[in-house]
Automatic annotation (TrEMBL):
Keywords: Cell membrane, Disulfide bond, G-protein coupled receptor, Glycoprotein, Membrane, Receptor, Transducer, Transmembrane, Transmembrane helix. This is Type-1 angiotensin II receptor. The gene is agtr1b. Receptor for angiotensin II, a vasoconstricting peptide, which acts as a key regulator of blood pressure and sodium retention by the kidney. The activated receptor in turn couples to G-alpha proteins G(q) (GNAQ, GNA11, GNA14 or GNA15) and thus activates phospholipase C and increases the cytosolic Ca(2+) concentrations, which in turn triggers cellular responses such as stimulation of protein kinase C. Receptor for angiotensin II, a vasoconstricting peptide, which acts as a key regulator of blood pressure and sodium retention by the kidney. The activated receptor in turn couples to G-alpha proteins G(q) and thus activates phospholipase C and increases the cytosolic Ca(2+) concentrations, which in turn triggers cellular responses such as stimulation of protein kinase C. It comes from Cyclopterus lumpus. GO terms for molecular function: angiotensin type I receptor activity; angiotensin type II receptor activity; C-C chemokine binding; C-C chemokine receptor activity.
Amino acid sequence: MRNITTGVTDEIDLACGMSGSHEFIFTLVPIVYGCNFVIGIVGNSMVVAVIYCYMKLKTVANIFVLNLAVSDLTFLITLPMWATFTATGYHWPFGEFLCKASAGLVIFNLYTSIFFLTALSIDRYLAIVHPMRSLRLRTVLYARITCVVIWLFAFVLSVPTALIRDVHHITNYTKVCGILHPTVENSMILKKLLLAISLMKSLLGFLVPFVIIITCYCLIGRALLGARQIQKSSRSRDDEVLRMLAAAVLAFFLCWVPHQVFHLMQMLTQLSLERNCAIIEIIDTAMPFTICIAYFNSCVNPIVYGFVGNNFRKNLMRLLRCSPNGVRVSHPSISSKMSALSFRASEGLSLTAKSKASSEEK
């Protein structure tokens, strides 16, 4: 893109035209956004209600899951605006403040969601592989402090994205919520800032957390497989937990990889001195659909981390039936299966160590 004038509110010209502007995008993407909004609001609201009403914030896993659901809810409230923006042919009628706030909330949710998923993975690793040694670290106080740090760190990382967003006039009747356009004075600074934001999004928003999550789940799987050799009777429950962990990793990977790939391609085109309009057209056409897939992660999280638990489903049915508090029955937390498995896994590992020691004595 290039500037016609230096004023933000004046019209600008696009070097490659309105690339990615197709009628099927303007029709299909808003529908997907609407479905994501409804499913995500209902699912995450149920998670918040069930944890608050029945499970309480007495375990580390519950605290992280609750914060993850709140993070998704703060993002989902922006989806109607993005759906309107796409349905009207990329016309932004909501003003400059909501443009900046909505763009900032998207990146804010990206970081908070992935950071809380990473925190959950580390907590599960400590609970299953090092259940006794990690008791001092896995407390409610430390979990709440971790949540505060995650919220603040994600906010700091999302501020630059909000600052570089603005409303631009493409024509007399089309206003776009997009990044600031370079001028002669700020061209180099803006390019470096965009590169830094893109690198942080790729590294801190995907690659580093993904490596941590994969590492944690691989170590968990190795510990469970070792414990299974000692306790054959627990195989079915072990398999269920492994499937749950695999589903979490798979959902994270499938939802975010397509967007990150095209985001990397978009970053490379921004760094290129020459504009290849054919490649830009492909990226701009595919990007709305990769964003839809990424946004769907906010709908998957309640399913993976909440609805797969039997106790969560029981408490959800109590909530839907409006059961009185007076007949409340004590139920384990969302992590009850994993907590029970932590003891069996550590017991199995200790039995393995004892058997090796006894064989050496003989």
